[in-house]
Amino acid sequence: MSALEDLGAHIRASMTNAIENVAERLGELTLSVRGEQIVTVLIFLRDDPRCKFTTLIDICGADYPERGKRFEVVYHLLSMHLNHRIRVKLEIDEETPVPSVASIWPCADWFEREAFDMYGILFSGHPDLRRLLTDYGFQGYPLRKEFPLSGHVEVRYDPEQQRVVYEPVKLPQQYRNFDFLSPWEGMTHELPGDEKAEKPNEAS
User: Fold this and answer.
1) 67: burial class by Cβ within 10 Å (0-12, 13-18, 19+)?
2) How does pLDDT run along the chain (204 residues), one tens digit per residue?
3) Deepest in the core among 79, 146, 151, 204, taking most CB within 10 A?
């Protein structure tokens, strides 16, 4: 049994009621946990002497609208003591909040705000759950699959009004025009300046 397999078995045996699945892939463990148990699991992973996952690297979301529980919330942890990484994920629907872990790792504050801003994932017990990356009054959640690629409104500074204005998205030009050097158009066999180069058959 490898070290990761041994660690996964230890975690599963210790957290039987919280762990739904343990998998090893690409040199990392992935735990699937019950959403309501996420705080208990993460505290165990941080404090257990065989785990020591003391560093929270990231919290991110993923959207699967065809599922009943459309969102996955994914936590990436690092044990610098043991040189291991672990991925912890849970599934949640649009209405059910995920317990915040900002009290365990303060950096989770902004990670959870980003997941809320981009996906609309709710985190109960968060100290300040508001948008982080989008503008004030922004409508919708940009990383949900149904969000339009062009957005709903565009923001610009109006020099005449001397303020920021919001306007419906306008796409007056369907395609951009590129010059002949553009990789979208493809390269020609000769670039500007090539005519000055000495060709092999012209060499004396």
Assistant:
1) exposed
2) 688 889 999 999 998 899 999 998 877 899 999 999 999 999 999 999 999 999 999 999 999 999 999 999 999 999 999 888 999 999 999 999 999 999 999 999 999 999 999 999 999 999 999 999 988 778 889 999 988 877 778 888 999 999 988 888 776 655 555 555 555 555 556 666 677 777 666 555
3) 79
Residues near 194 by beta carbon (within 8 Å), at least 6 away in sequence: none
Separation between Cα atoms, residue 13 and residue 191, nearest integer Å: 66
Kindly compute the dihedral angle of the four CA atoms of residues 99, 92, 151, 131, in this order, to the nearest 10 degrees: 0
Burial 30-57 (b: 16+ CB within 10 A, else e): bbebebebbbebbebbbeeeebbbeebe
Which residue's entry shows tokens 């959403």? 35
What's the CATH class of domain 3-199? alpha beta
Provide the whole-model pTM: 0.76
| Contact assessment for residue 114 and residue 133, using Cβ atoms and an 8 Å cutoff | yes
Longest dimension (CA), the chain: 83
Both structure tokens of 169: 């998205």
